[in-house]
Amino acid sequence: MEKPESLEQFYRSRMGALPGEMIRKTGHFNVFRLSDLKGGDGEQPMPYSRKDYYKISLITGRNEVHYADKTMVVEENMLLFANPLIPYNWAPAGSGVTAVFCVFTEDFFKGYGNIREYPLYRPDGFPVLDLSNEEAAQVRAIYNRMFEEIASDYAYKYDVLRNLVLDIIHTALKLRPGIISTPGKMDSNASERITALFLELLERQFPIESVMQTIRLRAAGEFAAQLNLHVNHLNKVLKEATGKTTSALIAERMALEARALLKHTNWTISEIAGSLGFEDLSHFIRFFKKYTQVTPREFRR
Q1: Any idea where the domains of the chain sit in the sequence?
Q2: CA distances from residue 11 to 7, 37, 152, 162 in whole angstroms, order as listed
Q3: How far apart are CA 92 and CA 45, in angstroms?
Q4: Helices of type H across the chain
Q5: Looking at the domain that runs over 188-300, which CATH code has it been given?
Q6: Is the confidence at residue 300, as pLDDT, over 50?
Q7: Which pairs with CB-CB distance under 8 Å and at least 24 residues apart come from 86-89?
């Protein structure tokens, strides 16, 4: 699975250089106009990929956005809330497209709440808003304040900028109150999106290509935490979508990888067990036999 674009890669590809102060102790924040970047005429396509930072973009002009498993064409103005979990890109679908956007790391909000808890950043939401010209002007005014603030010498300007990011989020939620879903209710699109994101998270850990590589997520609760969902809710969605529990889907994929490693590598069984996150070899042998009906040694023969 392709690695997410880092902030350093973003700056090098779109700005040509790194800023003097790349990552501050309180996280990173910056704000841009599309015209200020390399390829800022909008003709340079953004790769469809995950990023390792958050991004909020206000785009004016006809454009098309691909976000996770969805595609949306916006005729006038689009407000896009992108997060590190979900791959996306957008491309102009006409001439004269302009954009302003801010980028920030999760650490930028450390100690100020969990940014992932907002509905716009949850996997059961679709964080693309089609705005009228009047609504876009309201959001653009917040960006103008960002540009003024970041250029100032005010000692606490990053506190102000943090509040302005929240101002955009809350403005969007007020403009589209339907984004705030009723607990316990979820449409089919949201269920499909959660399922797709879970499967992407799971598959992203494979293939294992080195004995030094160890999968990071093995338990249902770990996947639920990464998706910012309660584990019972994730189980319910996956059970309805696939007929299998979260734990069963994880175990089946791990067993598949174990068979591939036993067949196509000369790694020891202990090394394979370790790469799959098993600290106890006997536990791995029991796990493998449960899903394959033979022991790892028998399968390799």
Answers
A1: 7-179, 188-300
A2: 6, 9, 22, 21
A3: 8
A4: 7-14, 133-150, 157-175, 188-203, 220-226, 231-242, 246-264, 269-275, 281-292, 296-300
A5: 1.10.10.60
A6: yes
A7: 86/50, 86/123, 86/197, 87/48, 87/49, 87/50, 87/200, 88/48, 88/50, 89/45, 89/46, 89/47, 89/48, 89/49, 89/65
Q: CATH 3.40.190.10: does it fit domain 7-179?
A: no
The distance in angstroms from the start CA to the end CA of the chain is: 30
Q: Which pLDDT score, from 0 to 100, does residue 46 have?
A: 53
7-179 and 188-300, same CATH topology: no
pLDDT digits (tens, 9 = 90+) for 186-206: 456 678 878 888 888 898 888
Token reading at 233? 């809710």
Mean pLDDT over residues 89-115, rounded?
87
Q: What is the mean pLDDT of the chain?
A: 84
Mean pLDDT of 60-76: 80
